[in-house]
Protein 1
Amino acid sequence: MHQRCDSTRTMPLLLLLLLLLLLLLLLLLLLLLLQPPTAAAAAAAAAAAAAAAAAAAAAAAAAAAAAAAATTTTTTTTTTTTTTTTNNNNNNNTSDAAVAAASTRIPLLNTIQHFLIRISPYLPSSCIMLHPSIISTF
């Protein structure tokens, strides 16, 4: 004969795991809400400054290209190459600022993410269905 699943034993354990997961989610939400806005504001300001610099460089390149078109083709090629390099440098600075701002809170979130990944095989299917939405917030 085979044994039946005794819900009086498994249900308290599942409820305890679900409660633990809920508390972990509340802690995560609290930590995200209490993050100082300076990192996000600094990243947004850096992105806006880089976008303004890129727009100014593009406008300068267009003006230089229009002026150079009246003279020679060689000057136009040189101006275009310089503008491309400037835009690439601005884009690299923007991504570096965004990465630096985001990296201030990643270690704790990575720890929570790895914890959830490790316990997910032991959670009931209803909790596992919530798991990808939790991970996608990182």
Protein 2
Amino acid sequence: DRYLLLRRAQTKDHGAGSWECVTGRVDQGEGFLDALRREVREELGVDVTPAFFVGTTHFYRGAPQPENELLGVVFACTVADPAAIRLSHEHDAHRWLTAAEAAAFLDQAQPAARWLRTVIARAAALRRLHPPALLAYWQTHGFETDE
């Protein structure tokens, strides 16, 4: 399995030049999966299939104040044609790496890189641990409990 790493463009106000995965916000009235698909289309120009839920993350974008507080929901996804990826202005480079390659590549001294290493290691472990029947159920029924 390979994981997509994206380098934030130098024009970004936070984390310019750091490596990340697709990120974004949920718009008012939008579900997590709709937001995921929209953000991926905006940032990569492709559609993805959510494979499984990886976890949540709590962080501050800037100083630890309520207005900077964010909660992230992380999913592992698949893309039918990796060659079809077209980066938006938000990123200036991308790499497909195995979990081991990503761990070696990402700078442990950088907080964002440590977080991404943890996310990739967790995704790799969960991919191995989830029974195929559970993965198939999620593919058919999704993750959200809303009707």
Protein 3
Amino acid sequence: MTMQENAQQQFLDMVKLAVRDGRLAEHADQLTAIIMQQPDHPAFGRYYGLLCRQQGRMADITNWLAAIEADGRVSANSLTERAAIAAMQSNIGLADDLAAQAFALDESRDDALTIRAKVALYQRDYVRADELFRAALALDPDNLDAAYHHASSLQQQKRMAPAIAMLEHCLALRPGHPQVCNVLEYCYRRTANWGRTAALEPVVREQTRAAIAAGGVPAELPFHALIRYGDDHYVRDVGAAFARTLGPAVPRAAAPVPPPDANKRLRIGYLSGHFYDHPNMHLIAGMFGHHDRENFEIVGITYGPERTGPERQKIVEQTDAFIDFGHADNVNALQQVKAAGIDILVDLRGFTESSRINLCRQRAAPVTVTWLGYPGPMPPDVVDYQLVDPIIAPEQDRDAFGCALAVLPSTYQMTDNTQPVGAPITRAEVLPGLDAETFVFGCFCQPYKIEPELFAVWMEILQAVPRSILWLWADDDLTRGNLRAVAVAGGIDPARLVFAPMMQKQQHLARVQHADLILDTWNYGGHVTTTDMLWAGVPVLAKRGTHFASRVSQSLLHAAGLPDMVADDADGYRDKAIALANDPAALAAIRERVVAARTGSALFDTPGRVRHLEQLYRAMWQRYVAGEAPADIHLS
């Protein structure tokens, strides 16, 4: 090896280490100088493209690619870079094709394999994704991008132990990496590893505060923020920063001249990637058929993997038009939604996984709304309105919400009063070996909603009611094992924690009727879960919340005519649970009220709730036609 080659190898090793440690910008000048001399450098080209993307230097990338491809030649560098850009633009088909071509030219390109793996992960093809991630990591075990996204794939498959191990490997590669810290804290929380949660959560919070103070985008996602903290002001700030990742906001346009008819038949577009057998879809499946077709035309707009099944078919049949733009990139998706002539676009995902709320930010319709999917404040440069109710968005917290609020008179959450409940199932079938005198407390919320303080209160309840069990849902062995270990540490026989297996929705609604009392979670309470329990006729006990996500059960119970089932604090929650377990007559009376709420409460008045929605949509449209900016709208 010549002296020049040796120096170049030393610099290459430094660059690789800098990539791993997030310090690539330190070598920008020397890296750029090398590329100016040799644009298609086999070793440094990949890092120059990464540097430019990290710094937003898209013009430099364009010039660099032009230099590489000046003679019509293609190379692994140019193909991989174009694949990365296509992936950034959500053009995943092109990204996969270009990355495959790049790897065919140079089988050392672990970055090309990583792009292909991330495409497969987006498509939820976990087998292919994991195979490609493993191949990329075999070429470069220090490929942080591949390791991080491989952990994401494992997490989505509920393979929590290997997912956590992979994230811990990532943190060893790059200590303090904000994205890794954020997701690893969530995984510890998700699996009830509360000791490690407590150690990592302050790190994430400080990283978030520092990023926001510096005008940047924190690694902490808005959804993670609302899980961790009962503070909508904090969640609002995280969401406002996150919104910048959605691309530039398109300013609100004035109504055309002459303005549209304020009383025209409105074309309402409901946007969601979950128009299939999904919990949020169970809430609104019965809504579409109740819309007033004389005054409203209803369009379902979906995306993502192709879906079939009776739930999808029901929505297709109950909408006037149904658009599926699949995996279309942002430009194509925006064109399709605009071409549909939507007057009011209602996003159903918010800042959650698989959201396309960027279509609202890019003004796919004259009026934009967000609802249901994301229980946190939404910035005004993303949507015009957020559908809420007076409990989840009380007046004293108005400043925590950025966009205009469209306030429903009852709970904001829709319900389907035709949702079928499965055939009766015996207690012995769902809780084998349990005698008839054992009291069944239950909670079917996802495990990430369970906090150590809440679990400690649950253990106090079990101590006070010796002939009782706690019926839970957890979908992986690691979480179940950790919860049992905490119970043992609290002096509770782990056999008193009974874990329900996954079950089809109708059968699940039938089996939960064998629960005596549902104990709601606190910082992120039950939403669909609480509605399901009440629809099944089972009493729910909640605690008063401090932000949107923690107030939903309170809102639902008020709409069901059961405000007395909301405790003011932890002591009241514990004491009421114990009192009801020891007073069968009082519990039976509450259960009768829950059953009566199915036909006699605002909560399950689906047609009436749809009328309220329509009144709000009309008011939004009238403001737009009048040239007025979005403002809070209240229905009495």
Protein 4
Amino acid sequence: MPKLFGRKRPNIRDAAAAEVPDTRPSAPRYRWKGGEDEERLDELSRIIVGRAKELIDHYQEQMRKAPSRPEAMAWFDERARFLSSPRIGEIEEHKANGGKVIGTMCVFAPLELIRAADAIPVRLCSGLHNTIATGEELMADAGLCPMVKSTLGVKMTHASPFFEASDAVIVPMVCDGKFKLGEVLQDFMEVWMVNVPHIKDTQQARSMWLDEVRALQQQIEALTGNRIYWEELKREIQLSLRAQTVARRLYDLRKADPPVINGRDSLLVNQTPHTEDLAEWIEHATVLAQELEQRVRDGIAVSDPEAPRIMLAGAPIMWPNFKIPQLIEESGGSIVAD
């Protein structure tokens, strides 16, 4: 089998990288059919961002009131204020230095490829309920996933700094909603649709997925001007494995009885690496894990030992749409798995 990646990496944007053909289509600029001008669009964006900040403030205030909340949650609280997070400045500096930002949907985008090309991956799935109505202007199906509509509405109103910073977005075709979302987003920005096999254990499926990864590699290289080499890819794979190890460590700590961390905090911790620097997330998640392990030894709980232990299942709950977790835990339940 031919090798997918090279062995050595020259300087960034070297002559070899410049030879990568740019096959990217130009994305047409979307115009609202209702004739709204830029002033009205800006006003709508200000309203949505203002209400989103109020929603984030509300949920964070309630979460901070929880008894015996871990001190290590402070960093995650700061980063969860994604509309004014320090990460925005880091991304702006990266772009000012010629770097690229690539948006992702779901968990099927190979983030290691993005980081190995010196680009920053950011997940763009939205949990803002007040952008759903805007998204329904183009995706009005009543049975369609609200997260898909919300994500489209965020882009239509320019409400997310991460969306606006993205030079392209990877949309894995894993459900009807994301498939349609990818098609509609092509009117706003560059979109790379990725065909994800529904069967994993056949040679045909493995070959198809490898072809998809190769095609994605070429698109990332063309966008960034950087070739992806094995040394950098291996480094990023190892970084992802470290993050997964810490995440599993935190999941195991949720088995403690009584619980040593609230389900809302666990959900928040699990979503922050989608936009943050992964190495920094690993550092702070490790500190949190150490604090929780000490709590287990000391018998410090965050809820009544007799509280019902709830497993949360179904469609993903994206921050800041924490209405269901908030309802469960303020009603006396304890979310211990999701």
